[in-house]
């Protein structure tokens, strides 16, 4: 499966970046701006696939790790269940897109 078969940022598994409040993503790349992007990319690449997925799922729910840390056990359990449901939905989307694209290599 190629990356292009997943779709444009409709998957929680695609990295996204957000500009700080009051800034524009279309501004020219300054020395500090590109360093910030490089640091952000480095941080992203250092994450395990599971960490990337968790961050993406939290972002889709509008939450951060800090938000989770402030929650009580019952609230966290609900969020964990929501994240599990979202992950299943995303995996089903990927599975649906790749059906029929498998090649039998058993011969």
Question: Which terms summarize this structure?
Answer:
single chain, 107 residues, mainly alpha, 56% helix, flat
Helix content: 55-70%
Q: What order do the SSEs take from the amino end to the carboxyl end, as H and E?
A: HHHH
Query: Structural class, please?
Result: mainly alpha
Ends distance: 21 Å
- Radius of gyration in whole Å, from Cα? 18 Å
Question: Strand fraction band?
Answer: under 5%
- The 3D shape can be described as flat
**Tell me about the biggest sheet?**
none
Outline the low-pLDDT stretches: 1-12, 14-29
User: What is the subunit organization of this protein?
Assistant: single chain
Mean pLDDT: 75
The counted number of beta strands is 0
Specify the number of helices: 4
Could you characterize what this model shows?
This protein is mainly α. It has a domain at 31-98. It has helices spanning 31-46, 49-60, 65-70, 73-98. The longest helix is centred in the C-terminal third of the chain and has 26 residues, at 73-98. It starts with 30 loop residues before the first helix and ends in a 9-residue tail after the last helix.
Question: What does this entry show, briefly?
Answer:
Helices cover 56% and strands 0% of the residues. The protein is an all-alpha fold.
Structural topology:
Elements: H1 31-46, H2 49-60, H3 65-70, H4 73-98
């Amino acid at each position: 499966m190629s990356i292009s078969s997943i779709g444009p940022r409709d998957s929680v598994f695609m990295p996204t970046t957000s500009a700080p409040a009051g800034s524009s993503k279309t501004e020219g790349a300054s020395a500090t701006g590109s360093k910030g992007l490089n640091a952000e990319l480095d941080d992203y690449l250092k994450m395990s696939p599971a960490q990337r997925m968790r961050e993406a799922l939290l972002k889709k729910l509008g939450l951060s790790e800090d938000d989770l840390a402030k929650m009580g056990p019952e609230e966290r359990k609900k969020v964990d269940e929501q994240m599990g449901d979202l992950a299943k939905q995303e995996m089903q989307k990927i599975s649906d897109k790749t059906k029929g694209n498998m090649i039998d290599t058993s011969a």
